[in-house]
User: What shape does this take?
Amino acid sequence: MLCTGNAARSVMAGAVLEVEDPPVAQVATAGTHVVEHQPISIRTRAAMAAVGLPSAGHRSHQLTGADTLAADLIVGMAAEHGRFVRRVHPAAAAKTATLRWLVDHLGGGPGSLADRVVALALDQVDPAEQGDVADPAGGDDDTYLACAKEVVDLVGLLAPRLR
Assistant: This one.
């Protein structure tokens, strides 16, 4: 799960996958422009608590080449994240799309997640046409809560197809 600072949206999305029953295996979160090892904000923590998500222990992490190699799928929260991957980690473009786009296009089985992702030819899909989850940064408590609810809904729709 990828957002800008790895401080709100991607953390929320990763937490949803961790509490799924059964949990989605090997979920990692990262950001495109991160100050490493920072905790989430009070607003993010409060929004996550309000929607029943755990938030303890998170520290921000910058997306690395090793992260992109290890991932079967990189789920960005906005078009800017797809553009970042294409620019900085171009080999991972074929396995990167936004959460909104994947909810609409990633099918469930048969086949492995990696095979289903390859079939989508994501490197041919313009990130600008994939849809965003708005960044709550700078917003008030209600903005963070609205973001958390949106992420919970979208990831809940996607999660069964990630197994």
Summary: Residues 141-162 form the longest helix (22 residues). The mean pLDDT is 96. Helices lie at 9-19, 42-50, 65-70, 79-88, 99-105, 113-119, 141-162.
